[in-house]
Amino acid sequence: MVFSVVDIVASLINSTNATDYLKKLRKKEPELGIYLGTNCPQVDMISKSGKRRKILAGNVEQIFRIIQSIPSPKAEPTKRWLAKAGYERIEEIENPELSQDRMKDLYERKGYSKDWIDKMLRGIAIRQNLTDEWKERGIKQEKDFAILTAEISNATFGMTPGEYRKFKNIPEKSKSNLRDNMTDLELIFTMLGEKVTTEISKIE
Q1: Contacts for 101 with CB less than 8 Å, ≥ 6 apart
Q2: Which spans in the chain are helix H?
Q3: Domain limits of the chain?
């Protein structure tokens, strides 16, 4: 998903001409200008006038980069959040258990039961062991991981992950994780399929 860069800038500044503000910002900070030119394409979007035009657009990561360059009180909450998120990431690198604790807290706030969360975390660990085994055997490309994952899913549920997402009524363009939509029993079957695959890979 991408967003209009000018619209984001307009929401954060006290100016009626966000396009002009962005031009001045790019001149003031050459590195930002290079970043925008390299990472933010012109995308067909509906303008305020209702007409479809080429508009400078960016994804969430790129929008965050732009916000960091805007000296506006409205941008400060996002800047502080990014600083906090960066600090927490460094903490998790130093102490990986913090990552699990924060993940548990996130799922609890989403309403998942503790039993489901335990199965989810156990499933993640099993999945990591499986992908590590594949990497040791020379699997590097993302598409190859996807093919192997589809084989396990098909053997376990009779459906590929894509077909399973449709079965679960997860929107095609949604970034929602398939496992987040699984029941306790489905998580158990998924863990079993991946655990068995890992053990077989070690034997062969």
Answers
A1: none
A2: 5-10, 18-28, 30-39, 60-68, 76-94, 97-109, 114-136, 142-157, 161-167, 184-203
A3: 3-77, 91-203
The string of pLDDT tens digits covering residues 30-85 is: 999 899 989 988 888 877 777 788 889 999 999 999 999 999 999 999 999 999 99
Query: Contact at 8 Å (CB) between 156 and 190?
Result: yes
Per mean pLDDT, which range of 41-45, 123-127, 128-132, 148-152 is the poorest?
Answer: 41-45
CA distance 60 to 97: 27
What is the residue-wise DSSP string for 25-59? HHHH-HHHHHHHHHH--EEEEE-TTS-EEEEEEE-
Question: pTM above the 0.70 mark?
Answer: no
